[in-house]
Amino acid sequence: MINSRSSINELQEYVAATEKERNFADQSAIEKCLLLGEEVGELFKAVRRTSGLAVDPNSKATEVGSELADVLNYILAIANRYQIDLCAEFVAKERINSGRNWISNAAQ
């Protein structure tokens, strides 16, 4: 069972198992990407709402944390579609990023 201390690998395995239980395992990577896009839109709306920016008062109220969890769920599901160890990929990418020089546009 997962908990608030679960690793990315544990979450990825959990998502794979729950997709089977909930009959979502047959959804393609393309379908998951489209669903991810919808969730990212909901995340943006939640960020706008919490930042005090104008939003449609009739739109569904969402919480940033809840929407981030939805986004993570789809990211993990997409990684599973491609048999990608997302934790290992993250670590490898951060090794590359740590060697880069990051300059803000204001400094250029």
Task: Provide a brief overview of the structure.
By secondary structure, this protein is mostly helical. Helix content is 62%, strand content 0%.
What does this structure look like?
It holds the Pfam family MazG. Residues 35-86 form the NTP pyrophosphohydrolase MazG-like domain. This is NTP pyrophosphatase, house-cleaning of non-canonical NTPs. InterPro entries: MazG-like_dom (IPR004518). This protein is mostly helical. The protein has a single domain, classed as MazG-like (Helix Hairpins), CATH 1.10.287. The protein has helices at residues 8-21, 29-50, 64-81, 86-98. Helix 1 (8-21) crosses helix 3 (64-81). The mean pLDDT is 94.
Query: Which strand-content bin applies to the residues?
Result: under 5%
Distance between the termini: 49 Å
How many strands in all? 0
**What helical percentage do the residues reach?**
55-70%
Going by CATH, the architecture would be: Orthogonal Bundle
- Main sheet summary: none
User: If helices are DSSP runs of H or I spanning 4 or more residues, what is the number of helices?
Assistant: 4
The structural class is mainly alpha
Q: Give me the CATH fold name.
A: Helix Hairpins
The rough form would be described as globular
CATH class (first level) name: Mainly Alpha
Radius of gyration: 17 Å
Number of structurally distinct domains: 1
Low-pLDDT residue spans = none
CATH superfamily: MazG-like
The H/E string reads HHHH
